[in-house]
Design goal:
Number of domains: 1
Radius of gyration: 12 Å
Number of helices: 2
Structural class: mainly alpha
Shape: rod-shaped
Strand content: under 5%
Order of helices and strands: HH
Amino acid sequence: EETVEVKVLEDPDPDVSDSEVTHRLIKRRRRAIDDDDDED
């Protein structure tokens, strides 16, 4: 999933603002962290 985040940063959607992209990355990262906590 890390690769997906990097790809988004390298090739962002032209219709999406940088702040929106960053917000999506943070939201996705938080979800991944929550999943790790649940497994742990």
